[in-house]
TrEMBL record:
One of its GO terms (molecular function) is zinc ion binding. The keyword rRNA-binding does not apply. Gene3D superfamilies: Zinc/RING finger domain, C3HC4 (zinc finger). Pfam families: GIDE, zf-C3HC4_3. Its EC number is 2.3.2.27. Keywords: Membrane, Metal-binding, Mitochondrion, Mitochondrion outer membrane, Transferase, Transmembrane, Transmembrane helix, Ubl conjugation pathway, Zinc, Zinc-finger. This is RING-type E3 ubiquitin transferase. It comes from the Eukaryota. It is an enzyme of class 2 (transferase).
Amino acid sequence: MDGFPVTLTEAVCLGASFAFSGLFYCLYKKSQSAVNKLENAPRFTVDEKLKELLKVTQGACLQYAVIEGTVKSEEKPLTSQFQKEIFGVFQKFTLKEHKLMWNGILRTWIDTEHILHQRVNMVPFLLVGLDKTSVKVLHPLKAAGTYTEITYEKFIQASYGFGNLIEQYVSGVKPKGQLEIEEMLKVGTTLIGVGEVRLDADDTLCLLPPSDGSQYFLSTADFQTLLSSNYSTTLWWKALAVASSLAGAAVLLWVGLRYYRHLKFRWEQEQERRMFAEQRAEAARQPANEARPENVCVICLHHPRDCILLNCGHVCCCYVCYQALPQRKCPICRQRIDRVLPVFQP
């Protein structure tokens, strides 16, 4: 591709499409692997049969299994900060600030938010079965899935005066207010856990993140909903990977088309050069005649006019001066020159 430049925009778009395609494909494969593991994972109820099964299992461990039980606190449960009758084992308080930012490109206000403060409280908890068999849940913060519900939500609207309004329009930032959210995993909630189930030496059942790196899940939804949600996520990553790949292919196609036009232009130039070289060789074999003034190139005023410019049809310059033109435009009428042909004038 000698002499063919790839623009910065093309290079950036091509590199970005390859990078995003690789990223989305990796996320798709990871998500697909999680879905496959979920589909093939054995499902157990929390009871004495599970404990007996683990006792006869090598290593007293199920590397990936699905269990379901009711949440129970091992210690004194947490109390909701805003509703004292609600108790739980996991509590997360989030304070978000909402602002309107002026977008100069779209010429409109864009709603944005960022977290000002977040606090998490947790006590050890169990999943209890119908026969009171319990499984201790370890490292719940490492789990994916939705296992909390909103127990309190309040939006505190910002108040400002006339001076604040002027400042907002000058700075392009308009505060909307603050949002307080409390989320809790309540005592008594039915919870699904997906991960490694282990029987410790003290006869305690434990649910923990899988040692093989598989995805760890805790969810208040049923198993089919959890599976469908992860399958939808997989489809989204797949669609993004395909879209990024198609965008990269489109950029490659565009660069290839430009390269083809570049080669075609160079081939046409080479054909023109050969035709005019043959014409000059033929003229050299003819008896030398002094060029008439009306047949002299209008640019160099020395060589005879030996080319016709198309599509305007003017015969006004020699081929050497035509090649030196800064723009492919006729020196007489300034029309674009699409082709040039040799012309022999005796």
